[in-house]
Amino acid sequence: MAVEPNNKVSDSKWWSITVNSTLGSLPNFNDEVELNGTVLNADMTVNNSNPDCLLYNYSTNTLESVACSKSIPVGVGSDGVPFSGDEPRLNAIPKPEIEIIGVAGSPVLNFTAKAHVSSVSVFSGSNGIEVYGDDSQLDKVFAGLRADGSDPSDSGFPRISSHGIRILSNNTTVNSSIAAYNGGLGIRFEGSGVNSGKAVNSIAYYNALSGSNLDGFIAVNGASNVIFENCVAANNSGSGIDNYNGGRITIRNCSVVKNGWGNAEPSGIRVSGSGSEIVNNLVAENVGDGILVTPTGSTSTPTGIKISRNSIFKNGYVGIDLNVEDTSNNMGDNVTLNDGQLDCSQPNCGIDYPVITAAQLIGSSLHIEGFINDENAGSGSSSFAGATVEIYMVNNSTDGDDLAGNNVLSGGSTSSKFYGEGWIYLGSLTADSSGNFRGELNVAGKGAEVGSLITALTILNGNTSEFGPDARVTTKPVKVRAEMAITFRGANITITALEEANNVKLYWIKPSGLVLTAEGDFDSSGNDGDIYWWEFGSISAGEVRHVNLTFGGDFSLIETFNIGVDPLQ
Predict the structure, then answer these.
(1) Which of 32, 35, 67, 189 is buried deepest, with most CB atoms within 10 A?
(2) Fold category of 91-333 in CATH
């Protein structure tokens, strides 16, 4: 730039270009165009006069100016555990050197042909950026906020009255961009002409300030095959991510937090497109449901919506709501009790949730039993044969869901039971041909403890259920009995299985001075100093196993009676 920046805050400088009522709005870009706000010096080096970046802060629920080397985790990664370290990272987004101040009643930038827009901030105007040209790309764009990341109203400028970014084109990607402080939606994919599109590595923050039923991200009015990935949707008046009257969408590794404060569309995510997939997301502290599955607009009843390995907790209503009764399709109808049937006139075919009947922890192994059917049936229904049962921890003694809103049934009555939410994914089992399930999960390092609450959901043919009733984790009952008999030359130890037991370990403390030899029908053995052990891989119910000890040396007989047994499963 040949002129000095005309805006400065602290060490940051940038250029403002004002489109005023005298000049009128900028003309449409009717030919293929690249609009790049990168500023070059006279020697063609980049002029980075606005050097910091912008990033969301989970703790303060704000956008913050940070060093550009910073990043945050988004979603929960493939393990379904929040902040465990396997999450993708969202890099801080650079502040641009150029901002364009629009004029009321018109979009700031309007592209009717293919466009590549990068490194620019737009605010004021009716919409920030409108894109009609297929195969367009938006990179490092600020829509609705100033070049320093601030709210325009803080410095006396009008906000964008409607949407930050409005996309009516096919196969358009929004990457590493932020939509914030807009009167309407943050980033909007709109219309049946949108058969693919992406919003990735982007943030929708504090949008819908003029309409409580508007959202952070949306695929609307027939837009389909839109992917929202590695994103943050936070503090929006409506839903964080919406799918009103839309087609199939994918939401993957996004953090959808603290949305819905306008109370008209309070869910974190609302989805209505059949075949949609919502996986590996963090969905927390939204005013309404975590995820609302419901028909909207002219869409038929949605089915085949897969919701898997998300961390859903501390939302105001239930974690997952398959809406049957709320005709507004905004609020949901809370817990819909099981009826033992699949009914595809209902969202996700009205699939039943799992009922956990046993949750027993010993060591790092969690034993689970239960069924999928009417809660009062006591056993499963063959309608759910082969279903995947995902097990989640609701809370433990230190953290997790607060249970708020999770005991309200459709119709408004209150249940003595709580249903979810699913905070930490623990693993999955498969229902048998009768709809029953049973198995062991390795929960090492996931915070599961005696007294924790757990819940589960069902996935069958792509349809995911609501969360089932919470179950309390208990200790696993003892399955084996150990007895020791002293003989003239040593001791005989018997292990009796009271029911089938796996990985049983017998311990014995050898007295000082004793010389030992051992034989028997154990599978492996060893010692750690004077602590000896013998392990049995599997013992059938009623079966007796033996360890025969032969003693030698000079020792105290009374010290030979130190035995213990550990039924690991």
Answers:
(1) 189
(2) Pectate Lyase C-like (2.160.20)
